[in-house]
Amino acid sequence: MSSESWSDRLFGGFRKTSERLTENLAGIVSKARLDDAQLDEIEDALILSDLGPRAAARIRERLSGERFERGVDEAAIREAVADEIAAILRPVAKPLEVVAFPRPQVILVIGVNGSGKTTTIAKLAHLFQEQDYGVMLAAGDTFRAAAIGQLTVWAERLGVPIVRGPEGGDPASVVFDGVRLATQQGIDALIVDTAGRLQNKRELMEELAKIRRVLGRLNPEAPHDVVLVLDATNGQNALQQIETFRDVAGVTGLIMTKLDGTARGGVLVAAAEQYGLPIHAIGVGEKIDDLRPFDPDLVARVIAGVA
Fold it and tell me: Which of 213, 268, 272, 305 is the most exposed place for a label (fewest CB within 10 A)?
């Protein structure tokens, strides 16, 4: 895929966020500095664009201290906003790298049902395959036959092995078998699907704790990553999911999906500013190569409408 078509898709994904910001910035013209009323307007526009109050306050602070040599216009404000968004996003942009020794790197993938978790696992596997890593999948979401079936279809399509158990079986035993087989076969990355039930946090906590115990017996370093998949269309709800899953599951990083059809892409910035968790990748479509490592500068410019 050409990088051009990827950035085009990214533009499409963030267009609604960018347009919402544009509407609210239109007509702001000033001399060398913005006054308080204008700064209030911009801060409100950023909050309305789902960047969240903390990021909006930080950007406002940056703008209030900015001296615009050529006078203030929409383009100058956008540039300054893009710079500050990039400053928020750069520290959290960390690709998911396969570095575990001994192999395999065990990646638990969590997220509520409907977040695009299973498809994201397939896309992640494809991303690793492109880097010449050997990948295995484990169907640890044993409570939904559909999840096991869907992951199996993806494994066949990608040509990667999959470990699965009976519907309603013990997820920890599936994970145990996965690590054992992946170790025997010299697999680089084992990607584990897990149940997405948030309704009963206690059950989910106990299940994940059991998976961790079992993994610890096989490899004290595992799981190496606990990746939360978030649906960007959920806006502020996505932030609540980070809060909950971080406490329940010890999340180590995020993947944001469904950025292709939402006006709420700004939630990416809110998540970065509020939680500081690594953002490994973003997804802007259904195709297998629609997941890419997160480029903070490009995303900042697209959100601010200057790319």
Answer: 213
- Enter the DSSP assignment of 116: S
Q: Are 168 and 193 in contact (CB under 8 A)?
A: no
DSSP state of 232: G
- How far separated are the first and last CA of the chain, in Å rounded? 20
Could you give the CA distance from residue 5 to residue 136 in angstroms, rounded to a whole number?
Answer: 29
Both structure tokens of 171 = 């997820």
Quote the pLDDT of residue 1: 45
Angle at CA of residue 111, ends 288 and 224, nearest 5°: 85
Residues with Cβ within 8 Å of 252's Cβ and at least 6 positions away in sequence, in order, are 225, 226, 227, 277, 278
Distance CA 276, CA 205 (A): 23
Full-model pTM? 0.92
pLDDT at position 261 is 65
Which of 261, 187, 278 lies closest to 227, judged by CA?
Answer: 278
Judge whether 93 and 294 are in contact, CB under 8 Å: yes
- Residues in the chain with pLDDT values less than 70: 1-4, 27, 29-32, 69-70, 198-199, 261-263, 307
Dihedrals φ, ψ of 194, to 5°? -130, 165
Q: Residue 279 corresponds to which tokens in the numbers above?
A: 């953002």
Residues with Cβ < 8 Å from 200, sequence gap 6 or more? none
Q: What is the DSSP letter of 233?
A: G
283, 256 Cβ separation under 8 angstroms: yes
**pLDDT tens, position by position, 33-88:** 788 988 998 899 899 888 999 999 999 999 998 877 667 778 888 899 999 999 99
